[in-house]
UniProtKB/TrEMBL annotation, chain A:
Cofactor binding, per record: Binds 2 heme C groups per subunit.
Gene that this sequence comes from: ccoP
Reported function: C-type cytochrome. Part of the cbb3-type cytochrome c oxidase complex.
Protein name (database record): Cbb3-type cytochrome c oxidase subunit
Record text on subunit structure and interactions: Component of the cbb3-type cytochrome c oxidase.
Lineage: Bacteria, Pseudomonadati, Pseudomonadota, Alphaproteobacteria, Sphingomonadales
Automatic annotation (TrEMBL), chain B:
Region (Disordered): 464-504
Gene Ontology MF, one: metal ion binding
Originating species: Novosphingobium piscinae
Cited SUPFAM superfamilies: 4Fe-4S ferredoxins
Membrane spanning residue stretches: 32-50, 82-103, 155-172, 192-210, 340-358
Gene Ontology, cellular component aspect: plasma membrane
Electron transport is among the record's keywords: yes
Name listed for the protein in its UniProt record: Cytochrome c oxidase accessory protein CcoG
Pfam families: Fer4_18, Fer4_5, FixG_C
Length: 311, 504
């Protein structure tokens, strides 16, 4: 089979194999190729010595340089934290009310808040902060407890109806139907009245008219005579288009009958103040943030230029 | 008829040194010229200046990786315009096809960096050690002190050239004068030192020692070119029908009529930078540098025979010539259908790139809509959507611009830097020079607005003007939300638009 012969055209020996008349010349490899191969062997030995390489029963050889992917991650994390440290210190040193005056810092705070939001808040409020039934949408302009930076920071720090925090947001609506304060018919009437405030029921309807009296007797203390709510109690505005627990008749009846008292953890017990400040900045930036002082917003040209310059 | 090739004696073959002799002639002078031009471009180009005003660097050719810009004289390329670079690379590829189909392996013979630097280093060899014979003698001489000294001197010169080569490379990636200062004061980026070290080593090693081994064993391009050559390609050809049988002048004088023009002087082998014998026929080691043509022409002139025993010819033409026809002029050989097709494609891409370059806009608006949530209902019942607008100003000066809503009646917009109370149909801002400005805007439309398409219109409000217009979609709650699969969305909307309308 292996019949080596001299190739006439080139004078080179063939390797002796033949496939359908095609033969291969036994051209020698260049010597440096062999040396390159030896060099790779030397490199491999060096690699085995300095890097983790040989698997053992429990783990493996650690290598002279003690490298590990976990260690590399830890080093990266440390260096990233070192890079962030000055920004975080600046945010910590700036009162939240002064943050908007420093667009670069504000932008950093919003970015940091966005990251923290994805870890801590999306479970209830959703990835887009759009909430769902019972969990407020943070993008809109309706706030139960107030929507300026400081108020949001307070709400996040102390939570809502959270035991163990003395400064937590606290209020309790009576379960008007469940506790027998109002009979079912009156609950339905007051629900009709409440829905008439935002035009869902014609204001002149008989049910709404009856409900108005019941509302005046039972609800105005917290929700106000005009139904626009009161933020010191976290009492929702009933005259707007936004319904945390649904705005149809059945939902409103259910809300009046059993009442709702949503809770939120007091994040001050779990997160550091800088993270909370950044979270407040992020939530405020979602589009519904309110001003607490006149002239707070920078004009877009300056803000934009400053932001671009900071990039 | 042919020099016998060595029979393989082992698995591995030691490199036989190549010591090409000095030669002068048409093609050698062409090689000198091409070497001078390519090296001048490589070493000199980063030092050319080009005034671009206060907002951009003044280096004529600069790949600014940190700021993601590519500058080439009056042209500035942004990352999203990378298709220009891709187009240039395609042109370079097709250009190689074109050159190969027209003049064979001219790239290998004249313009390839491996060839140019090898040539340069071979000149250094001749400068330090003398011509071919002196080099051979020194190569075989024992390692005496004087040989060691000569080798060290030669390798130091290699190293200096190699270091310059590596050093010139990094100048394309940063402002050259600044980088030189930083480099020598130890303040340049580690990647700069790393690049210089790697390129110095590869130049030193590949140009100084590997030389023709790179072409014969390492480089894929000779294989590709071998596949692209056909019977119409110009290759360096030994006209064996004219040269054989080889015999010295003495033999020819003794026995007239028996011998061909080749006097077997071996000059073609002596000058070959890859150490091959062209008289064995076309082979992969031939980079078609044509130095053997120069050598043979000189000998032919000395012995009074016509030039061109070794010459550029196509296989097709060689067959004709063998049959007795006169040789076709090279000018005619270059133009054949394949060349014209490649030239056509190459020119079409070039024209397309020039057209794109001439008509590209320097102002651009890109819009990215928030998808989660797609829309919000505000407390007054109006519907709000949010976008991130990207205003691109490619001019090298800040420009005042204005974004306006077109369509979507009753809607207003405001940016995240202002309040809804300041909302309007337009937003004015200044976009800094050479920048993409991200701008987050909210658009609120009155309650009951249906889902619809509308446009953001960007206009520069300075004297030069210009602008862009981008269509996007305004999302709003639908009335038919009781379709399956929409429950989640219905939750988001808090049921404020449900069907039961007691009011009506």
């Amino acid at each position: 089979m292996a019949e080596k012969r001299l190739d006439e055209a080139t004078g080179v020996e063939t390797v002796g194999h033949e496939w359908d008349g095609i033969e291969e010349l036994n051209t020698p490899l260049p010597r440096w190729w062999l040396y390159t191969f030896y060099a790779t062997i030397v490199f491999a030995i060096g690699y085995i010595v300095v890097y983790p390489a040989v698997p053992l029963a429990r783990s493996g050889t650690a290598g002279l340089w003690q490298w590990s992917s976990r260690g590399a991650l830890a080093a990266d994390t440390v260096s990233a934290e070192r890079e962030r440290a000055s920004t975080l210190a600046a945010i910590a040193a700036t009162p939240i009310a002064a943050l908007p005056g420093n667009p670069v810092l504000m932008r950093a705070a919003i970015a940091g808040g966005k990251a923290a939001f994805r870890v801590n808040c999306v479970q209830c409020h959703g990835a887009g902060a759009a909430g769902s039934k019972g969990y407020p949408n943070l993008n809109d302009d309706d706030w139960l407890w107030g929507g300026d930076l400081q108020t949001i920071e307070t709400t996040i720090t102390h939570g809502i109806r959270q035991p163990g925090d003395d400064a937590t947001r606290q209020s309790q609506m009576p379960s008007f139907g469940h506790d027998g304060i109002l009979p079912p018919g009156e609950v339905a009437d007051v629900a009709s009245y409440v829905r008439s405030l935002s035009g869902k029921v014609a204001p002149g309807s008989a049910a709404a008219g009856r409900g108005a009296v019941i509302f005046a007797n039972n609800c105005v203390a917290c929700h106000g005579a005009d139904g626009k709510g009161a933020r010191q109690f976290g009492a929702p505005n009933l005259a707007d288009a936004i319904w945390l627990y649904g705005g149809d008749q059945a939902s409103v009846v259910a809300s009046v009958t059993n009442a709702h008292a949503g809770v939120m953890p007091a994040w001050g017990q779990r997160l550091d103040p800088v993270t909370i400040k950044m979270l407040a900045a992020y939530v405020h930036s979602l589009g519904g943030g309110e001003k607490f002082a006149p002239g707070q917003g920078a004009d877009p040209a300056t803000a934009a230029t400053a932001a671009a310059a900071a990039q | 008829m042919r020099n016998p090739a060595p029979v393989a004696t082992g698995l591995y073959e030691k490199r036989r040194g190549v010591f090409p002799a000095r030669i002068d002639g048409t093609f050698r002078r062409l090689k000198w010229a091409i070497m001078a031009i390519t090296l001048a471009i490589y070493y000199g180009a980063p030092w050319l200046r080009w005034d671009r005003g206060p907002y951009a660097p003044d280096q004529a050719i600069l790949v600014d990786l940190a700021h993601r810009r590519f500058y080439m004289f009056a042209i500035e390329i942004w990352p999203q315009e990378f298709y220009f670079v891709a187009g240039l690379l395609i042109m370079a590829g097709i250009g190689l096809f074109l050159v190969t189909s027209a003049v064979g392996r001219a790239w290998c013979g004249y313009a390839c960096p491996q060839t140019v630097w090898t040539d340069l280093f071979q000149h250094v060899d001749r400068f330090i050690d003398g011509d071919r014979n002196a080099q051979l003698r020194l190569h075989q001489a024992p390692w005496t002190a004087s040989k060691v000294a000569r080798r060290l001197l030669k390798w130091s010169i290699y190293l200096v050239i190699a270091f310059w080569t590596g050093g010139a490379w990094i100048m394309y990636f940063a402002d050259a004068p600044t980088l030189v200062r930083e480099f020598w004061s130890g303040q340049a980026a580690p990647v700069a030192y790393g690049s210089v070290a790697v390129l110095t080593f590869t130049t030193f090693w590949l140009g100084g020692f590997m030389r023709e081994q790179v072409c014969i064993y390492m480089c894929p391009w000779p294989r590709i070119q071998t596949a692209m050559l056909d019977e119409k390609s110009l290759i360096v050809t030994y006209k064996d029908w004219r040269g054989e049988t080889r015999g010295s002048l003495k033999q020819a004088a003794k026995d007239p009529g028996t011998y061909g023009d080749c006097i077997d002087c071996n000059q073609c082998v002596a000058v070959c930078p890859t150490g091959i014998d062209i008289r064995e026929g076309p082979q992969i080691g031939c980079i078609t540098c044509a130095l053997c043509i120069d050598a043979c022409d000189r000998v032919m002139a000395q012995i009074g025979r016509p030039r061109g025993l070794i010459d550029y010819a196509t296989l097709e033409d060689a067959a004709k010539e063998k049959a007795g026809c006169p040789p076709t002029p090279h000018r005619k050989l270059i133009w054949h259908p394949r060349t014209l097709v490649y030239l056509g494609i190459w020119s079409a891409i070039g024209a397309g790139l020039l057209f794109a370059l001439g008509t590209r806009t320097h102002i651009d608006l890109a819009v990215q809509k928030d998808r989660n949530p797609p829309f919000m209902v505000l407390s007054d019942g109006s519907v709000r959507n949010a976008w991130t607008l990207k205003l691109k100003n490619m001019e090298r000066r800040p420009r005042p611009m204005q974004v306006a809503l077109q369509g979507l009646p009753g809607a207003v917009m405001w940016s995240d830097a202002m309040g809804r109370d300041e909302a309007g149909r337009t937003l004015a801002m200044t976009v800094p020079a050479d920048t993409v400005l991200p701008l987050r805007v909210y658009v609120a439309a009155p309650a009951g607005t249906a889902e619809q398409a509308f446009h953001f219109v960007l206009a520069a409000t300075d004297a030069e003007g210009g602008g862009d217009r981008t269509e996007t979609r305004f999302d709003a709650p639908r009335d038919d939300d009781d379709t399956p699969g929409d429950h989640e969305r219905a939750d988001h909307e808090r049921g404020d638009h449900e069907r039961e309308e007691h009011a009506r």
